[in-house]
Amino acid sequence: MPRIAGVPTADATWLTRIAYWFARRRFGAVPEPVTIVAHHPKLMMASARHELAVEKATTVLPTGLGDLVVYRTAVRLGCSWCIDFGTMLQKHQGLDIERLKEIHDYATSPSYTELERLALAYADAMTDTPTSVTDEQFAELDRRLGHRGVLELTYLIALENMRARMNHALGITDQGFTSGDACRVPVPPDAEVRTGRA
In this structure, are residues 152 and 60 in contact, taking their beta carbons and an 8 Å threshold? Predict the structure, then answer.
């Protein structure tokens, strides 16, 4: 259970209700982190604007590479909510989610390309505490992806570190986005915020 209960629709401000409507329409359910940060509507809106802006701005990396490093970062930090949600997003983008089962063996798994292995090792190094990124590691990614690509990669990994650490601190765990064949949480019949587990 989260350490703070989510704000139900009945108690939400008009702005929060709009955010819930948008999230429900896009994902099939209101993500639990949204319902919890809704206790601070200005912060919720700042976060939503930031997430949408990052989504629009990340156009340089090869398809799926950003999703892959975000997923690996979530795995390293043990954020079950991020793993659940990230898997659902990858599935709906048509990416191969079967290979995610081999994420712990990415360095040797034939399911990952050389570039993906380099990016995943970089995600690990950025997520280490303290961080352990080397000059050589950065230079190789910069050579392959260019300045814009390596900046995009770095930003996505750093952002997922923030998300996963915040979810952990708030006690947010998986919400069930990847349960069942549909790989989505059904919208509750009463259109209220879902706060339980699938």
Answer: yes
